[in-house]
Amino acid sequence: MENVTDRPSNPFGMTYPCERPVPGYGDANAHFHVIGDHPSVHGGADSGVPFTDCPAADRLQRALAAGGLLAATGTPPEVAGTFCSYLYPCADGTPTDADYPLVEPQFDAELRAITAHVLLPVGGRAIRHVLETYTAHPVPDDVVALHATELRGGGFLVVPVDEPAAWTDDEAEELVATLREIHRTDYRREADLGRFIAGDDSYFVR
C-alpha cells in the first residue's frame, strides 16, 4: 500500500486538542521520520512547521541536509524522503507529563501511517519514548549517550539524536557521518510476501 497524498503539512488530517498545533510535515511515504519533543523546545510555533524558527532547529536542519535527509534547509525545509513531527505538537507552552498522553494516539497513528524505515528521535524524552514504545531495547539512564548510534530492532532502525542546542561540533559531524553511512546500506525494514501470491514477483511490505 502506498500513500497518495501530496500534502506535506498534516497529510493525514490529524486533529489536536489545542488551538495552535504544529502538525507533522514532510513526505507521507518517508523512509526517515524525525521525532522531536514540542514546539517550545524544537521550534515551529510561528511557522507551523516542526524544527523551524529557532537556532537549535537550524542546526538540526543543516545536519539533516548534510546527511541527505533534506534537499534544502529553510522554513519550510525541502524534504528528501523525510517526515518530521513532535510527541506533543501543541504550541501552548511547555507541556506537563499529563499532557503527552492526550496526543499520543495521534502521534502513534501518524507514525504507523508513515511506516518509515528509520526513526530519529531528538532529545531525551523522544528517545525514551521511541525506545520504550517501538523497540525491545533497554532504555539506559543516559539516553543521550546513544547519539548517532544505530539501534536495530524488528520493526525500525532507530538513530537517537542528542539535543541540537547541546551538540559539540564533533556530535554534529557524528550524526552526519551516521546518516551518510545509512544511505550507503540497505536500511529498509521490509518483508517479501511474494511467496504467498501467484506468480514469481516479489511483494515487499513494511
UniProtKB/TrEMBL annotation:
A molecular function (GO) held by this record is: deaminated base DNA N-glycosylase activity
Q: Which domain of life is it from?
A: Archaea
Keyword annotations of the record: 4Fe-4S, DNA damage, DNA repair, Hydrolase, Iron, Iron-sulfur, Metal-binding
Sequence ranges assigned to domain Uracil-DNA glycosylase-like in this UniProt record: 23-166
Q: Which GO terms describe its biological process?
A: DNA repair
Q: Does the keyword Iron-sulfur apply?
A: yes
Q: What is the protein name given in its UniProt record? A: Uracil-DNA glycosylase
Upper lineage is: Archaea, Methanobacteriati, Methanobacteriota, Stenosarchaea group, Halobacteria
